[in-house]
Amino acid sequence: MNWSDIIAAEKAKPYFHGLQTRVEEEYSSGDVFPPREKIYNAFELTPFDDVKVVILGQDPYHDIGQAMGLSFSVPCGFKIPPSLRNIYKELHAETGFVIPDHGDLTAWAKQGVLLLNTVLTVRAHTPGSHSKFGWETFTDNVIESLNMKSTPVVFMLWGKPAGAKKKLITNPRHLILEAAHPSPLSASRGFMGCGHFIKCNEFLAANGLEPVDWQL
């Protein structure tokens, strides 16, 4: 399988025609993020066959310039968002990770970490504005395609919306890691101290896969 075929198959379905129409209307009438050419950035950076970890986010950052088509990631030069700051803190506590001065997670994506948001576009300054457009159907089908992979995948599901995707992951060869969302509102209720990054790499190594070098 490859992302080109999977995405083409989704685009041919009736629901996607409605989704595409609504998204195009939004881009034509105001500021929408990420830039059109970055909507599928996660798939371009992490080929299907290379996916060994999925970190599931919600919708893109909604302030100018932040969204880059990768969950939790912002381009170099932008302030590290609070949730990502907590991800860095947890990585530091688990592994001694040296916290960088940027929030660009492209290096993870290039190692097989699919940084997938459940909704791929958002109207400026309006979080959740493109939920219910149809993106959730698209990303559910993406997760189902990953569930069919013959090689093990670690799914990191943080927070209730991500945890709701657990039902799509039925293949026993995969590992599901659940915790609270790393947002400052909830991180102390189970994200901090979750140990997910060590558990992920132990699982990958036990299955003959290269652990992720989390350092950025």
Textual characterization of the structure:
With 216 residues, this protein is an alpha/beta fold. 35% of the residues lie in helices and 11% in strands. It is globular, with a radius of gyration of 17 Å.
- Tell me how many strands there are: 6
Unreliable stretches (pLDDT < 50, length at least 5) are: none
Structural class call reads: alpha/beta
Strand content: 5-15%
If helices are DSSP runs of H or I spanning 4 or more residues, what is the number of helices? 8
Shape: globular
Give the helices and strands as they follow along the chain: HHEHEHHEEHEHEH
Largest sheet: 4 strands, parallel
Helix percentage range: 25-40%
Distance between the termini: 29 Å
Please give the order of strands in the largest beta sheet.
3-2-5-6
Overall average residue pLDDT: 97
Radius of gyration: 17 Å
